[in-house]
Write a structure and sequence with these properties.
Length: 90
């Protein structure tokens, strides 16, 4: 259920206007930022890199899901700010 919540309406929980094309290499849009899905492992991990216009820099966002039992899942979200050079290597 957590996985579906991440992808069905990301704008509802992300506090931004978000679109995610759920597949490896899929397009991502976060407000004015554009990016690419880098990791897509259904029910386990989603990661994308987003470039945003200055003065905001780009970032990589990772979502890792770890099932605790049949009813509970731990969701870890990590955002890593990326330099302009790191973004150009994407």
């Amino acid at each position: 259920m957590v996985w579906e919540a991440l992808l069905d309406d990301p704008s509802g929980w992300f506090e931004a206007d978000v679109e995610i094309e759920p597949r490896p290499g899929g397009r991502v849009r976060v407000d004015e930022g554009r990016g690419t899905v880098e990791t897509f492992d259904p029910e386990r991990e989603l990661a994308f890199r987003v470039w945003t216009p200055p003065p905001v820099e780009g970032s990589r966002v990772d979502f890792v899901l770890e099932p605790l039992d049949d009813e509970h899942t731990v969701l870890t979200v990590t955002e890593t700010k990326l330099s302009a050079r790191a973004m150009s290597l994407a």
